[in-house]
Every structure is written in C-alpha cells, then in structure tokens.
Amino acid sequence: MKANKIILFMALVFSWTVVSAQEIGRELYIDKVNDYMISYPDDWSLEEGQEGEITLYPPFGEEYSEDEIDSESDDEIIEEKLQIIPSRWDEGSLEEYIDVNFHSIDWSEFFVDFRIDKQGDEKINEKEAIWFLTKYYIGDTPCVSYFYFIKMFNKVVSFTSFCKEEDFELDYKIKYLEIIRSTRSYLETKR
Fold first, then answer.
1. In whole angstroms, what is the distance from residue 107 CA to residue 57 CA?
2. What is the residue-wise DSSP string for the chain?
C-alpha cells in the first residue's frame, strides 16, 4: 500500500513539474473588455493599440539591429509580427464574418501576387476557427501570412501574421501557431 502512495506522490510531483515548466518563458495577455487571453513568449514585445488591438513582435534577429531598422527604407525591411484584433460580430456565423471582412477585400491592392495557398478550420479551446495561409511579395521578397479567425460568443478575434517566406518554417510558424492556439475566453477561465 505504501508503494502505491509513493508512486502516486511521485506522479503528482512529476505532473506539476511538467506543467510549471511549460509556462516558464511565457507571458499572459488578458483583455477583459473583449473577453480573450493569449500566451506568448516572454522575449517578444507587445504593443497595445486602440479598442483591444495588439501587435506582438519577435525579438530582433541577428540579421538587423534596431539602428539598422530605423535607418533602412520601409521597402527593404519586412516587419515580422502578429497582429490581433477583436471585433464585435452579432450579424451571423464565422463564415459570414470572413465573407464580409476577408473575402470581400481586394488583397492585390496591398500585396503583389497575393494568393491563398491553404485553408482550413479547427477548434481552438472549444471555439470555432477558420484559417488561411497566404503568399505574396513585398518588393522582391516572398512573404507568408496566416489569417486566423476565432469566433468567441459575440466577437471574432482575428490574427494576422507577417513573415518573410524564408523565415516562416524554421523561425515563426510554430511560434505563431502556439500563440494563436493559446487563445481562451477570460470569463470562462474564471468560472
């Protein structure tokens, strides 16, 4: 009987250690007004905008320093980031939101050779989500963006990532998806 209690105790200690280790190196952003929260790497910087909009920036890579970015022209630097925008949506389904706020936009006005490369849907913490992986050019640089839309009650939280194609698979894809998939309702976690 004592052996079972020792094994159970060791299992609980191990489980707690694993859970605690997963949160090290992470920050938590909570937007109580728009009822969502996300987890992001603690070495990324967060910039708050109006009406709950936030932008997450990865740390500057070895490729550029802050001084070089300030001195370069806008055309030569691709700013890799993740923008998050909550929007009220009482008018219908997530598909209807996407028709109005994504499909109706002529993206070729903003990006050269813009195309949807892949798309799909999934559940993120029990919430409906639809995503698009897009490719385009900024100047001569091939770029990739994720567009994720998560329906949360009477709101849609939209995620748009910006990244050079050469950096996407190795440096950013997994980090962007970890942040997006960490999205939860703040009020539901308080219940």
1. 23
2. -HHHHHHHHHHHHHHHHHHHHHHTTEEEEEETTTTEEEEEETTSEEEE-STT-EEEEPPP-TT--HHHHHHS-TTT----EEEEEEEE--SS-HHHHHIIIIITS-GGGTSEEEEEEEEEEEEETTEEEEEEEEEEEETTEEEEEEEEEEEETTEEEEEEEEEEHHHIIIIIHHHHHHHHHT-B-HHHHH-
> Between β-strands 155-164 and 141-152, what pairing exists: parallel, antiparallel or unpaired?
antiparallel
Domains of the chain: 26-190 (3.40.1000.10)
Buried b (16+ CB within 10 A) or exposed e, 120-129: eeeebeebbb
Residues 80, 82, 85, 91, CA torsion sign: positive
Location of structure tokens 């999205």:
183
| Predicted TM-score (pTM) of this structure | 0.80
User: Exposed, middle or buried: residue 70 (CB in 10 Å: 0-12, 13-18, 19+)?
Assistant: exposed
Reported as a single tens digit per residue, the pLDDT across 13-62 is 444 443 443 457 999 999 999 999 999 999 999 999 998 899 999 997 54
